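Q: Predict the bound structure with FE2/S2 (inorganic) cluster.
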Amino acid sequence: MASTGMKQETNGWEPRIVAFFCNWCTYTAADLAGVSRLRHAPNARVIRVMCSGRLDPQFVLEAFARGADGVLVGGCHPGDCHYMEGNYKALRRIRFLQRMMKDMGIHEDRFHLEWISASEGEKVKTTINEMTEKVRALGPLGLPERFVKWDEEMDELEHTIAAQEEALHA
Amino acid sequence: MNASGPTGGDLVLRDGRHPKTVGIIHCVGSRDRNTNRWCSRTCCMYSLKLAHLLKEHSDAEVYNFYIDIRAAGKAYEEFYDKLLEENIHFVRGRVAEVTDWAARPEEEGKLVIRVEDTLIGVVRRVPVDMVVLAVGMEPQADSQDVRRMFNISCSTEGFFLERHPKLAPVDTFTDGIYIAGACQGPKDIPDSVAQAGAAAAQALSLIDAGEIELEPNTAYVVEKDCSGCKSCLAICPYTAITRDEVKQKAFINEALCKGCGTCVATCPSGAIRQNLFEDEQIFSEIDGLLQDRESVSTGG
Ligand SMILES: Cc1cc2nc3c(=O)[nH]c(=O)nc-3n(C[C@H](O)[C@H](O)[C@H](O)COP(=O)(O)OP(=O)(O)OC[C@H]3O[C@@H](n4cnc5c(N)ncnc54)[C@H](O)[C@@H]3O)c2cc1C
Ligand code: FES
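A: Predicted complex:
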């Protein structure tokens, strides 16, 4: 599915996107996309939640921390939430989170919110494809590797300081 | 035309005269991008009925101006067929204007209906004494208030939304609230009555069962972690959460909870959890999805 040219360029790396889809709209739309045999990038893996309002900011942060290159959230269109207004609650939370992520140096294209109704199978396809390409262009985020590196750097720093202190007291 | 109405069934104009010609204009405000896009479903048939009654009770000439005759229903098409033989005029075309401006002597003192007769391809001016508008059906002006009161949804037009168009046509997304009749969409009396019967039966079956089956994915409070901050109270669209003032803790009424999980994500103390969608479960899902991060390139 993904172009082989890309794969060679990025050394076999493929973007990994964790998608949180609301049971009533986007998840159903993804189902529809499947039933309609629409082909989309295989890079997004879906986690079902009952409502986009269930999206705990921790889920997003955790996904990045555990190696996701992007996080996609799909919910019902404004006014259409199965639970009335869970998507508005999600929207507020997500907007806030998006600002935080930017401050943490995570590019805004890596965290995307899209309203997709149950009948919009086509939109699931285009959203996933577009997001995959954007994240591909950004390259791997690789937080787990960075954490390891940061840990090593911290260890090194600690050793250096300890050595310096020892030298001082000697 | 109603025998028990103010005119005793007599067809009279405001000034007491008997109209010699009556024009019935179909689809007023319906099937139009500028007003209501939907077909109001009942107007064709009640306009035909009116035309038939006019013929029966007076000697007026009757004109029907229609876009399409939609006579879908048991014996409806047959009724339309019958009318075609009753000397009623049918003009196929959307009326452009009704005016009292006379262009010819015979139009003097009349209402002139200007319309393109699409079957013969000419623009016609039809002078009549009386015009009847078949005005389209719209949602009640306060449907949004009622919707909110019962915690149900509206479609974009403002009609109440059924849970499923085919499989749950009188249910709503709120358990125990059923809809029937024109509030759900334009429909005639037979359809309204059928729906009303279904809705009543649904309500009775709920009552008769004596107990309610709940979805298992409800939220619950872990009391020892709850600080009683009330953040969750305002967030619940079903008012399922209350605060136990003695214990100073939140309490979730499982019978009201629909399991959206919004309170779970909101609780700053992580004291609310959701059956089937526990944080741990979702974290393991995330973990599972990202396990084979290195070997993802084989997809497609
Ligand atoms: C001109 C015309 C002619 C028609 N002729 C025919 C015909 O010959 N044959 C046929 O089969 N159908 C006909 N119909 C269609 C028929 O009228 C409808 O199918 C039928 O009335 C629908 O019934 P209902 O009970 O759903 O709604 P309605 O009859 O509209 O009843 C709704 C009721 O709810 C009340 N209400 C609204 N809001 C509130 C509120 N907030 N609080 C409390 N009460 C409220 C209203 O006052 C009203 O009494 C005709 C329609 C029109 C407009
Ligand atoms: S149910 Fe879809 S966003 Fe709330």
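A: The longest helix of chain B spans residues 189-209.
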